[in-house]
Amino acid sequence: MKSDPALNSPYMQFDRLQWAALRNAVPMMLDEHDITELKGINEDLSLDEVAEIYLPLARLLNFYITSNLRRQAALEQFLGTARQRIPYVIGIAGSVAVGKSTTARVLQALLSHWPEHRSVELVTTDGFLHPNRVLDERGLMKKKGFPQSYDMHNLVRFVSAIKSGVPQVTAPIYSHLIYDIVPDRGKVVEQPDILILEGLNVLQSGMDYPHDPHRVFVSDFIDFSIYVDAPEELLLRWYIDRFMKFRRGVFADPHSYFHKYAHLSEPEAIDTAHRIWREINGRNLEENILPTRERASLILTKSTDHAVSEVRLRK
User: What's the pLDDT at 93?
Assistant: First the structure.
């Protein structure tokens, strides 16, 4: 008799129908207009996707957050201390073009609409990339998004301050138009109930920075982590599709860092997108992002049209 592989896995596995049943009659909180506002430039996000995938996930997160608040209250009762507002941190990781940002925005909307009316902030780790000036000096412009391109000490300080209950913490802002950190601007985060931290690197740990003497990492401060997954052939297709849409849209802006790509012919643009994926995003996925997948609390696996086909939840 062969052993069941699931028994040897740290994850429980659900197909789409099994996961959707865990919604447990939670009412839909968003409408078609909300969905249009939330979806990414290259994604087909539907009400069905929100109802069948994200509502059960929001319900699960609500249980975890409530349990965490009870644990905090028990500790404060034991210590005889006043209640502190310590945000619950949700990390969302995955490849370029997989739809992390849409997942983050949908969860922010759903958790904000939950009956408890919790405040939910969303911060992306793009803001903690080194400025282009620094990347240029270090010869890292072609490794943007790789671990060494981030100011990890600043990112860790930010998340540590959030989890310490600091009333106001400021995160740098990144502009995809200029492809750089926006000077003299920041996003102020004021003790939300929930912080969603979205980025390529939120699940990385000390194993990913063997030469870094700093031994505390973003993943140490995350309460629940989500990895958005998809086969690489789909990721490449979605990246090329997104690149082509940007070519017709934002790249046409003279202020865009990638304005030069707006004038490429369609075959040239497709070849350029292939090359960027092969040299940068595909390498980063294989070397730095995919190895962190099994650290996640939950894995959402996508199939065609960005629809989630499978959910794995850590036991």
Answer: 98
